[in-house]
Design brief:
718 residues; mainly beta; Jelly Rolls; Pectate Lyase C-like; twelve-stranded mixed beta sheet; 3 helices; 49 strands; 5% helix; 45% strand; globular
Length: 718
């Protein structure tokens, strides 16, 4: 019982005499009662917990025992909560509360699938106690009342709390399940394994704009005499917790035979989380953009050029260990992060390293290298793995001043697959959003997903992970995805393909005006790619807009197509690639190409970019079409005049004005001139003399000239 002074007790007794009864009758039938909403109390007798209890005689379980003579009561403080476990995800349609005299004035009724992340079903302010019934619509395994303001000086006190379930709302989305037909799970004993790789490659080698998508998942073990050639929209990943858990005595190969030895269009494929011992000592990974190489242990060397050393335009390595030498050879540019290499030979224009053990020293004044000892902030991409026979997703922890690989220490946490809605082709945006509202994460299986509304990611720490370059297409001019201004969302491994009706923004991270500090737990965007046109007409004013603070953009290719179907100055119009309005945003591995206006427009303070690769739009009809404010051409990378602090390393912009080669672009980069804005190792290049740059940054830097494809460089600005 409560311990009170005599005066307090007498005052309370007088107040209680005015109440009709200290123990109200059993809870009345809910006002939410409707066809399909059960009158039975699904919470009765279920396990219950609470933030606190007044005494051993008022436990949480007393509010769910069906006895209106027993009660739960809390400590005399705000806030407090009471939670019940229904045992499985249920469709929720009503909640009844039977208060004792000490009731809650302000509270929320909430549900959760995991007991950690909560969705508010109903908010009550100015509650009057007694017996109340509330209609709700949602689902969850856990239901709680979350009290924020008491009506009395005592705690919260409930005789009973009833939960009603039924089928009047939308049935709950179930987590987990199988991974679908285009996820190919193999182990060392899988029969005809080489044939499986060869069959997929035969269909995908040149299928640049097709709709087929594939993901190979390799169980832990040793695989002998395998050569997994990867074509378009094909990913191969190990299912171990560490790369060395999946040992391939063979090769993971990307070459360019399909394109006559030219690797500049080897896009949209990936290899992750496995070890390779190449047959001839060196693995070949001749890729262009959107082809990440992550968490790989190469027990030998790595060749980044195609057979015959034809053109190549890549690429990205992260969290990988290459025991031997990496040879980029004909690669024009490359970014390597938080890795270790046995050596690195040559390169063409722009090779950037951050946090790479064994990286060559900076020599940008005379060569292609820009090297930072550490990466200031990074978090590795989430990945699927097997814990025994159970699928889980590992979510690596944030690292600061990282150098070298993150494994085998593997700081982070694991999420079971039943906390993910496994999205398969045919899923609707409504179902996807319902799953998110329930507290589920998303695992997109390989496929193409047409959506009639934006995917709304509103919960902190949500993981949205794609397999096999899963592709999202917004129809009828909707946006593809919105992320709320919350902590720790992880977006990884998918492609957004613009629809034929103009979208305002394909991916928006944080609403306009976002102000929250996420430095302790930033949102990350990793291997998320955007395509405007190529597979057909595509239109979007903005590809990606980042309004939240502290976001990490780790490897993206935002591409307004220069070839394929539906390509033309206005046919696949897209004004801006990346717009950054949030503060303290970091980009590591930023590839943005061919936009009609600014490829990157950075308005947030204290932004940082490590490696930027750009080509200006090929199809500019004439200089007049891109003249603005007395300037010919929109900069590839524009820092807004209002910015007082910004820093970037290893930046390159190339022009190839195929429609009008007489165009002279004013500059590749435009920034305010002040002591807080610093650019390191910047270059511009005219590809074969198809147009030129007058300057590198603002009005500084020598012009490009002729057709020799020789960079014009600045090592430091200002």
């Amino acid at each position: 019982m409560r311990l009170r002074s005599l005066g307090t007790a007498l005052a309370a007794t007088a107040a209680l005499l005015a109440l009709p009864t200290l123990q109200p009758p059993a809870v009345a039938a809910t006002d939410a009662a409707q066809a399909g909403c059960n009158t039975a109390n699904a919470a009765q007798g279920r396990p219950a917990t609470a933030s606190s209890t007044e005494s051993a005689g008022t436990p949480a379980s007393a509010a769910f025992d069906g006895d209106t003579g027993t009660r739960w009561s809390s400590a005399f403080a705000d806030p407090q909560w009471l939670r019940v476990d229904l045992g499985s995800v249920q469709d929720l349609c009503g909640i009844d509360l039977n208060w004792e005299a000490a009731y809650g004035k302000d509270f929320q009724l909430q549900s959760s699938t995991d007991g950690t992340n909560w969705t508010t079903l109903k908010t009550v302010t100015g509650g009057t106690g007694g017996t109340s019934s509330y209609a709700v619509s949602g689902s969850g395994r856990y239901v709680r009342i979350n009290g924020t303001a008491r009506a009395t000086t005592y705690g919260y006190s409930l005789w009973e709390m009833a939960v009603h379930t039924g089928t009047t709302g939308v049935p709950p989305v179930q987590g987990g399940g199988d991974l679908g037909s285009n996820v190919i799970v193999v182990d060392p004993s899988t029969p005809n394994l080489q044939q499986k790789f060869d069959s997929v490659f035969a269909g995908q080698e040149s299928n640049q704009f097709g709709s087929a998508r594939y993901q190979f998942l390799m169980k832990p073990g040793t695989y002998n005499n395998i050569n997994a050639q990867l074509g378009f929209y094909t990913s191969v990943s190990g299912l171990g917790l560490n790369p060395d858990d999946v040992q391939i005595n063979g090769d993971i190969t990307v070459d360019a035979g399909w394109f006559n030895g030219n690797a500049t269009q080897n896009f949209w494929r990936s290899a992750e989380n496995l070890a390779i011992r190449p047959v001839n000592g060196t693995d070949r990974w001749a890729v262009a953009q959107a082809a990440p190489f992550r968490r790989i242990h190469v027990q030998g060397g790595l060749n980044l050029a195609p057979n015959g050393y034809g053109w190549a335009s890549g690429g990205y390595i992260a969290d990988s260990k290459i025991d031997g030498t990496v040879g980029p050879y004909s690669q024009q540019q490359w970014y390597t992060r938080d890795s270790s290499v046995g050596g690195w030979t040559n390169g063409v224009w722009n090779m950037v390293f951050s946090g790479v053990q064994g990286a060559p020293a900076t020599n940008f004044d005379s060569g292609p290298y820009t090297t930072l000892d550490n990466t200031p902030v990074s978090r590795e991409k989430p990945f699927l793995y097997l814990d025994g026979s159970t699928y889980k997703v590992f979510v690596p922890a944030k690292r600061t001043n990282a150098r070298g690989v993150s494994w085998p220490a593997n700081a982070g946490s694991s999420l079971p697959l039943d906390q993910f809605y496994v999205v398969k082709p045919g899923a609707t945006a409504a179902t996807i959003n319902q799953a998110l509202a329930q507290g589920l994460n998303l695992l997109f299986t390989p496929g193409v997903y047409h959506l009639d509304r934006a995917i709304e990611v509103t919960r902190a720490n949500t993981v949205v992970l794609g397999l096999g370059l899963a592709t999202i297409v917004p129809d009828n001019g909707v946006d593809a995805m919105h992320v709320a201004d919350v902590d720790g969302v992880k977006l990884a491994g998918f492609l957004i393909d613009a629809g034929s009706t103009n979208s305002d923004t394909l991916l928006r991270i944080g609403p306009a005006g976002s102000t929250a500090d996420h430095s302790a737990n930033p949102t990350t965007m990793q291997d998320v790619f955007v395509r405007i046109g190529g597979a057909g007409p595509g239109l979007a004013t903005n590809s990606v807009v980042v309004n939240s603070n502290n976001v990490i953009i780790d490897h993206t290719w935002l591409w307004r197509a220069d070839h394929g179907s539906g390509v033309g100055w206005n046919t696949n119009r897209a004004d801006y690639g990346l717009r950054v309005n949030g503060n303290d945003v970091l980009a590591t591995g930023l590839f943005v190409e061919h936009y009609n206006k600014y490829d990157v427009y950075w308005a947030g303070q204290r932004g940082r970019t490590i490696f930027f690769q750009n080509e200006k739009a090929y199809d500019v009809p004439n200089a007049a079409a891109i003249t603005h404010d007395g300037i010919v051409g929109y900069a590839a990378y524009k820092v807004a005049d209002s910015v007082t602090s910004h820093e970037a390393w290893g930046l390159g912009s190339y022009c190839n004005f195929t429609t009008d080669s007489s165009i002279v672009q004013a500059h590749g980069f435009q920034v305010p001139v002040n002591s807080g804005v610093k650019l390191h190792d910047i270059l511009v290049i005219s590809l074969g003399g198809k147009g030129q740059y007058a300057h590198v940054v603002n009005n500084t830097g020598a012009p490009t000239s002729g057709s020799d494809t020789i960079p014009s460089k600045i090592t430091q600005f200002p």
